[in-house]
Every structure is written in structure tokens, then in C-alpha cells.
Amino acid sequence: MPATAPDFSPQRTADGSLTLHSAQLGERYHSTHGAVQESTHVFIKQGLEAVEKPQVDVLEVGLGTGLNLLLTWIRCLEGKLTVRYTAMEPFPVSAEQLTALDHCNELAWPGLHEPFIARMTSDQEEPWEALGGLSFQKLPLAVQDLKVEAVADVIYFDAFGPNTQPEMWTLDVFQRMHRALRPDGLLVTYCAKGEVRRTMQQAGFSVERLPGPPGKREMLRARKSE
Ligand SMILES: C[S@@+](CC[C@H](N)C(=O)[O-])C[C@H]1O[C@@H](n2cnc3c(N)ncnc32)[C@H](O)[C@@H]1O
Predict the structure, then answer these.
(1) Phi, psi of 88 (to 5 degrees)
(2) Could you tell me the CA-to-CA distances from 171 to 166, 177, 201, 210 in Å, in that order?
(3) Is the pLDDT of residue 176 over 60?
(4) At what angle do helices 67-77 and 113-121 cross, to 10 degrees?
(5) What is the chain's mean pLDDT, rounded?
């Protein structure tokens, strides 16, 4: 698949929030049933909040438009927890696309716009100093090259789907993510395919099928239980 198709452009989803859509690829950055609804349900409620710790290390695979980052940051600003957020993104979304999406104003957090755009568009690979309870680090790294051990409490696995990008859903990638988690750490994904669930189990995860966000019957949550 081409990394970022040239025709990715903003599209409104069913809950009124915006995502990027490529007619050429037939792929979107979020569910057409609702970008914010999907991100909130899959990554925040079933991932971040299920960790049940006051200080959480998040690893995101596929930073994309930064919606999961913002929703996590807002939880921090609401005083719910503090987060060290590390995001992997080899093909960053452009400043023009981020401006067109205008996530911060859409989420009614206009004060986050400037620090959000600064972090999203910078080449800095060192962690940014914590702001509003969240410190942030962006790495231009492909998940196939992930080599860390026991550093994350939760992985937001937000890759394009297995039909579009099968190389992201392999046993090797799930084994790398398993190693990156601390004992009892969680990996969440919007995908509920049986083949994906079996690959996660082969990599050593215990896997739960949970109710999906509106419009999707199920999602998967994998736990590093060994
Ligand atoms: C479904 S989108 C992510 C949506 C994003 N989390 C958001 O909130 O906008 C998938 C992302 O994975 C990124 N990606 C593609 N290949 C990758 C790889 N090998 N490793 C990590 N991320 C990759 C894409 O560039 C894209 O931004």
C-alpha cells in the first residue's frame, strides 16, 4: 500500500467528527460510524481507563491525525491521570491536513491547538516536557522495527485494517508488541477478526472479545498475562 495516498482528505463521520478518507485506497483513518466515538470507546475506555493506574505509559502504533493523543491529553487535563505518551508514525500527516481537520476546535479544546500542532509537526525525537499532565514523544519508526522491552502499560494498536496493510498484523509484529508491554499490560484494537485474535494468542496474549463502538459488533483487547 502507498504510505500516505495523495488523496487523503477530511470527511465527516456519523457522529459529526472528522477523519481523513482516501477514495483511491478506499481507506479511512477512523470508522465511518464516528471517529471520536470509536477512538473514545476502543482506546480510552477499553484501553487507557482499563489500566487503572494514576500514571500510565501509552505506546501508540499509528499516530495519524493525533485524535487518540488528544483524547488521552484531555483525560489528563481533566485530572484523571498522568501519561507518558510515545507514538510511532513513519508517515506523518501534513500540517495542512491537521489544520483542515482542526481536531482541537472540533473537540472544544481550542487552547490545545498550538501545543498539539507543535508536537505533531516537529521532527523532535526527544520527549517533550510534560504539559497538562502528558509528556509526548514521537518516533518516525515502523512497528516492524520496534525493539523495546517492558516499557508500556497499554498499546493503542491503530493500524490500517489487515486487508489494506497485512504487514502490520503479523505474528512477528504482535510478538514485538508483546515484548514492549509490562506484565499485565493491554493492547487494544478496533479489529475483531478471528485470524487476528488467533495471531495475538500465538504471540502469547490472552485475548478478550469486547463490545465494539457504535456500528461495530466487537473489538479485541489482548493482555500480556505471562
Ligand atoms: C488508522 S491510521 C491511525 C489513526 C490515528 N491513530 C488517528 O487517531 O488519527 C493508521 C496509521 O498507521 C500509520 N502506519 C503505516 N505504516 C506503519 C508502520 N509500519 N508502523 C507504524 N505506523 C504505521 C499510517 O501512516 C497511519 O497514520
Answers:
(1) -105, 130
(2) 11, 10, 9, 22
(3) yes
(4) 140
(5) 95
CA atoms lying within 13 Å on the CB side of residue 144: 7
> For residue 221, how many other CB atoms are within 10 A of its CB?
20
Looking at ligand 1, which residue's alpha carbon is closest to its atom 22?
62
The answer for residues whose C-beta is within 8 angstroms of residue 41's C-beta and 6 or more apart is: 212, 213, 214, 219
Q: Which CATH architecture has domain 34-223?
A: 3-Layer(aba) Sandwich (3.40)
Ligand 1: distance of its center to the CA of 36 in Å? 16
**Separation of 20 CA from ligand 1 center, angstroms?**
12
- Residue spans of the domains in the chain: they are 34-223
Q: Give 76 Cα–ligand 1 centroid separation in angstroms.
A: 23
Q: Which of 70, 167, 168 should be mutated for ligand 1, with most atoms under 8 A from CB?
A: 168
Give residue-wise pLDDT tens across range 19-60: 999 888 888 998 899 999 999 999 999 999 999 999 999 999
Residues near 24 by beta carbon (within 8 Å), at least 6 away in sequence: 5, 6, 7
Atom of ligand 1 nearest to the CA of 167: 19
